[in-house]
Amino acid sequence: MSQLLNYKLEGEGHTIVLIHGLFGSMDNLGLLARDLKHDYQVLSLDLRNHGQSFHSEQHTYELMAQDVKNVIEHLGLTDCILVGHSMGGKVAMKLCDLAPNLIKQLIVLDMAPVPYQVSRHDNVFSGLKSVLEQKPKHRKTAMEILAQHIDLEGVRLFLGKSLYSGEEHLMWRFNVESLWNNYSDITGWQDIDKTDIPTMFIKGGESDYLTSEHQPQVQRQFRHAKAHVIGNTGHWLHAEKPSEVIRAIRKFIT
């Protein structure tokens, strides 16, 4: 039996599955979960190599989608609504290809079904590796090490949520080595077969992860795709404008 992802199930009703992005955990979409669980059953997960889930040397979309499918089948769920942010958006799109019979609707937060040629996380990996090498005992020290590599405080605070106390020093919950070794798979993408699953792409107005240039690739893979732009926000739209994201999700799924 394959290992099950760490998950949390809350609320009652139709099931919404929340899938976080790179360097995240289920807590990243917690604002969405806290709202949606009043009217839906919400399944939150930690993807492999993240949060409290198992670590693996392999980190492909095929495997991550299979991991999520295993949890859905373990819980006996059907007609799921998938909501995935960034890397989690690609996992959700892959799952529509892998198990369309389990999925009712798909919502992708600021991610396109394309391979990205740009490496956006070199400074992040430098900071994470420095923390591993220097083995700080205190959170303040770890955050100071990160600051030598990462200018944006918001990014440092986000990463800091995944620090925990090991036996002698602070450690990362995510598997830095595996994510680094598999980074080309994470930024990459292989087209899925064209799907009939109703899909909405929600874009951060100031983000360049999803642009009009990606429209041909979206239309090639998603027969029923809609787009919704949330203005004055970047890639972290669910953290910056949670109420607007929730409103868009609720409107689409009702």
Can you describe this structure?
InterPro entries: AB_hydrolase_1, AB_hydrolase_fold, Epox_hydrolase-like. It comes from Vibrio caribbeanicus ATCC BAA-2122. GO terms for molecular function: hydrolase activity. Keywords: Hydrolase. The protein is 38% helix and 18% strand. By secondary structure, the chain is of the alpha/beta class. The chain has two domains: 7-116 and 188-253, Alpha/Beta hydrolase fold, catalytic domain (Rossmann fold); 122-181, no CATH class. The strands form two sheets. It has a seven-stranded mixed beta sheet, with helices on both faces. A two-stranded antiparallel ribbon has the order 6-7. The radius of gyration is 18 Å and the shape is globular.
Low-confidence parts, pLDDT < 50 over ≥5 residues?
none
**Spatial strand arrangement across the major sheet:** 1-3-2-4-5-8-9
CATH architecture of the largest domain: 3-Layer(aba) Sandwich
Largest sheet: 7 strands, mixed
Mean pLDDT value: 96
CATH topology-level name of the largest domain = Rossmann fold
Q: Classify the secondary structure makeup into a structural class.
A: alpha/beta
Any idea what the radius of gyration is?
18 Å
The ordered H/E elements are: EEHEHEHEHHHEEHHEHEHH
Helix content: 25-40%
The oligomeric state of the chains shown is: single chain
- Which strand-content bin applies to the residues? 15-25%
Distance between the termini: 36 Å
How many independent structural domains? 2
